[in-house]
Amino acid sequence: MTRLLPSALEGRRMDVRVVDSLAAKGYPGYVNGVQRMGTVNDVYGWTKVHAHINISADEAYALTDKRSPHALYELMLMSAGTTHRPGLHDHSPEFGKALGVVAACFAEHCRAYELSPVVSWSYDPRTLDRESIQGEKRFHAHLVGRTRKDRAEVAERAVRAGELSAVRSRRIVEEASVLGALLSADVVDRDALRVLQPVPVLSTPTATATAQFLLPQGWQTLSDPELYADLVYIHRKLRRVYDEVMRTCTTGTSGQWRRPAIRDFDAEGIDVPLRAATRATLAHYLRALRPEILSGPVARSRTTHVYPLADLAYAVTIAEQEGHVYLHLRTNVFSDLGGAGISIIDGVIVKTKKGVGDMRVDEIAARSAFQVDFLHRLHHHPLAARALFPRL
């Protein structure tokens, strides 16, 4: 198999610690699948809605129980307005601030339950043919509490990515994520960020597999009103890089079972301010890329290895590591594992496998109580008005 990264970077990718996979039980009788929630009624039809908060005439969010769990203790925040909005940047600052308060409150709730919080979401609105990292195209954030048992299992089972097959290693920590970390380091201006603090790229295994940012005030940083602006700024930088690479280095367009092809290009013509080493790595990746042309669905193990996603795609994961809280951004080209399919637990990249057995009656009761208790905590949070009455 052709290496998509220079050998030194490929070695770093292979050294990233991973777990394949951490099992999650499902609801008895539930058959997993992708249900498109094109209308607000669909949100109610496919999920259990605990709260529905209006922000404007066409913008809202719902707090829901996820019908196909990624963990025992979790909640989902879903965009639930009449206008379909796939990205966080597609929403108003009020939505972003509400998400921040809900997530910060969720982290406090997890501490009360002796859980380790993980908050994540994905962006991949244009991939509609093959498996996507954003199966439901409405923006939705996963709020997960990891147990001590989860963390102990991850610590015990973590291995180098190099110990997995080429197919599995690409799916869990793909080459594009390393390239994305390098590109982000070059185009995201530290001085333009208001809250987030970039971690030097390649300085740690997680800063190799992701673009990593420190939340300086820990989980409380999520309630900072300026965080939304940072996330929108980072998205726009990634969008600019992606569009310029596509303009300079490809021909053709994306569509149903159709993708652009790499053409002859001059790496110096990519009009983005990159360090020489990053530009060379990007050129190496693109010239080594040999995606297959498919005309229809094939096995997931093949599409997620050889057939790219349709457009800019990335996942955001916020998690604790060595006493600090970090935001990780993973860019995806092939892998179908987004912010829910991949957790980052104590610095380990962890694939989640859903639907492994059924939750017991007592586990379902514990899950429900956790969610109801969270709603009570949110109502009494000092910044509750920002979450529950966003326009005030």
Structural class: alpha+beta
CA(first)-CA(last) distance: 56 Å
Count of extended strands? 15
Largest sheet: 9 strands, antiparallel
Q: What shape does the CA trace take?
A: globular
Strand order of the largest sheet: 2-3-4-6-5-12-13-9-8
SSE sequence, one letter per element: HEHEEEHEEHEHHEHEHEEHHEEEEHH
- Give the % helix: 25-40%
From the alpha carbons, calculate the radius of gyration and give it in angstroms.
20 Å
Question: How many H/I helical runs?
Answer: 12
Quick recap:
Helices cover 35% and strands 21% of the residues.
Strand-helix topology:
Layout (H helix, E strand, L loop, with lengths): L6 H9 L1 E7 L16 H7 L1 E9 L2 E7 L7 E7 L13 H20 L3 E8 L16 E7 L1 H10 L1 E2 L5 H7 L2 H13 L9 E2 L7 H4 L1 E4 L12 H23 E2 L9 E2 L13 H13 L11 H7 L7 E8 L2 E8 L10 E4 L2 E6 L7 H19 L4 H5 L4
Parallel strand pairs: 1-15
Antiparallel strand pairs: 1-7, 2-3, 3-4, 4-6, 5-6, 5-12, 8-9, 9-13, 10-11, 12-13, 14-15
Helix pairs in contact: 3-11, 5-10, 6-9
Describe this structure in words.
This protein has 392 residues and is α+β, with helices and mostly antiparallel strands. The chain is built from twelve helices and 15 strands. It has helices spanning 7-15, 40-46, 93-112, 148-157, 166-172, 175-187, 206-209, 227-249, 276-288, 300-306, 361-379, 384-388, and strands at 17-23, 48-56, 59-65, 73-79, 116-123, 140-146, 159-160, 197-198, 211-214, 250-251, 261-262, 314-321, 324-331, 342-345, 348-353. Strand 14 (342-345) and strand 15 form a beta hairpin. Helix 5 (166-172) packs across helix 10 (300-306) and helix 6 (175-187) runs antiparallel to helix 9 (276-288).
